[in-house]
Amino acid sequence: MKINENTISVFLLGILIGIVFVRYVNYFKKPIQDIDIDNFEYEKESLYTIKREELKNNYYQCLDQKVYWGTDSLQTSTLRELCSDEKLFFCFSETACPPCIETVIDMLNGAFSKEEIDKRVIFVSPDYPIRLRNDCYGRKLLNLQNKIFGLPLERQESFPPFLFVLDNKLRVKYLHIYNKVFPQLTSIYLEEIKFSD
Fold this sequence. Notes:
The chain crosses the membrane at residues 6-25. The protein is an alpha+beta fold. It contains six helices and seven strands, in the order ααββαβααββββα.
């Protein structure tokens, strides 16, 4: 079997093209360390933005307004009556990612007993569909007369799920915005605000 010169030339040319291609890819490939640094910078910026929003909304004074549960608008009370003792509010928009909402609910169920959740945890969503307000993740939603508490965070078209404690003077305390990059921060937050009677 005789190998002609053309076959050898094509074979060597293929090897040469392969070497050039590998060198080209390695030259323009971003080092993994640079990718990790970029991800870290993104996460750091994300935390910075969320912390700034939390500080902007903390200690905000909410106005008293009429409230009712689910779709029963005939039995109303006021926000001040509801918050005679501190309550933990879980506020979310209909446009928030459902897995984020479900994750926070799972964390609430893990951090508090069923009795504590029934007594002290209140779900609020200003834009949740009316037909689902009586059974939103197994609970009735609290409806506000003004639809929102008036927090700067709620003025956004779509806001992330957030938690806060409202005291008997209707002051927002311990506001926490859920961060899907670092969900463990929400678990830490819930451990820190455990209810004490």
